Amino acid sequence: MSVGVEAVSRLRDVQAQVRAARLKQRDAEVERLVLLIAATHFNRRALAGAGTLREDLPLTTRGALAALAAGGDPGEDSIVLL
């Protein structure tokens, strides 16, 4: 199992940033994508207005971190706020 992590310090164009991360995931042939986002007020507002992003990256921060800490497959792509 391979997990790719894309770190974002500031969400600007959420759709474009997710699209770029997905292209990297495809090109690197990784099975899971973790979109690691700085847990700022600005980014939280951007995520709240991002519409269907949670459908595309459904696993929560808590679920993703628990699975990764256990050394297992997160099972889904995820957004992690840190």
Spell out the helices and strands N to C: EHEHHHE
Low-confidence stretches: none
Strand order of the largest sheet: 1-2-3
- N/C terminus separation: 23 Å
| Number of distinct beta strands | 3
Radius of gyration: 12 Å
Q: What's the pLDDT, averaged over the residues?
A: 93
Counting copies of identical and different chains, the oligomeric state is single chain
Proportion of helical residues:
40-55%
Structural class: alpha/beta
Q: The biggest beta sheet, please?
A: 3 strands, parallel
Hey, roughly how much beta strand do the residues contain? Answer: 15-25%
Shape: globular
Counting structural domains, the number is 1
Number of helices: 4
Could you provide a short overview of the structure?
By secondary structure, the chain is of the alpha/beta class.
Description:
This protein is of the alpha/beta class and 82 residues long. It has one domain. Helices cover 44% and strands 20% of the residues. The chain is built from four helices and three strands. It has a three-stranded parallel beta sheet.
Secondary-structure map with pairings?
Layout: E1 3-8, H1 14-28, E2 32-37, H2 41-48, H3 53-56, H4 61-69, E3 78-81
Parallel strand pairs: 1-2, 2-3
Properties at a glance:
82 residues; alpha/beta; three-stranded parallel sheet; 3 strands; 44% helix
